Amino acid sequence: MRPGRAFRPWEGSPRLLEVARNERRELWTEAVGDPPPVYGERWTNVGDRRYRLFEPGRSKLAAAVVRGWAGDLPAPGERWLYLGAATGTTASHVADLVGPDGRVYAVERSVRPFARLLALSERWPNLRPILGDARDPLAYSALVPPVDGVYADVAQADQLDIVVKNAELLLTGDGARLLIALKTASMGRHRSATGHRESAEEDLAETAALVPSVPLEPFHKGHFMVGGRWGRSARLPVRESVRPTMPRGRRPGRRAR
Ligand SMILES: C[S@@+](CC[C@H](N)C(=O)[O-])C[C@H]1O[C@@H](n2cnc3c(N)ncnc32)[C@H](O)[C@@H]1O
Asked: What is the pTM of this model?
């Protein structure tokens, strides 16, 4: 891949590149670790830098960017707590975004995916895997310093409570970031997906200043990215140029693990 006009860093996120290829737009993160690919993703070189394809069909965070997420993304040098890391598909990209001077504390409670996450951390030096239950942040709080953001993708009925518990204990304070891949199918059948999203926004608005949520369809059915900044009166980022980049005719890829 050659740098050029069709190639630009994403606003506020210098380690995320958007590449226009004919009608399609692709996202790439600058790799912190070494090959081989983490989950079969494509790699490419730009000069002496290595990038990994960040696909909306594989990662809810990539889907949020493609769907026009106007909030902050993890930035170089930051520390993030990642809840529900599974085998590290998205966590590795978050680690790419925070770069070698940042850290991602990745919590996963199931042993099988955790074993792969642990193996990944051996070649992704800024990824710190934690085998633990995100419902009990006190149990791992000694391993996690105050963080600049919490990313959650636990797909549980009490996903919001889990986020708030972790945020209260481990965020640096007001203005720190929340990114929640909200799975409405886990929240019961008594409301529609939109109803669940609205109710989650209402609950979160008691403790956070929210950026407009974005639907993650067609990539992740019934999911929304919800979040913003911790603290009701936190100041939100002003984004003037964010617009959805969903390519025409794009079909959803494989589901994120
Ligand atoms: C949808 S998957 C995560 C996918 C991953 N975030 C990605 O994009 O690569 C949800 C994960 O959350 C984990 N999980 C669910 N409840 C959890 C809890 N209470 N504490 C920690 N992990 C949990 C599950 O074991 C599962 O691996």
From this structure: 0.91
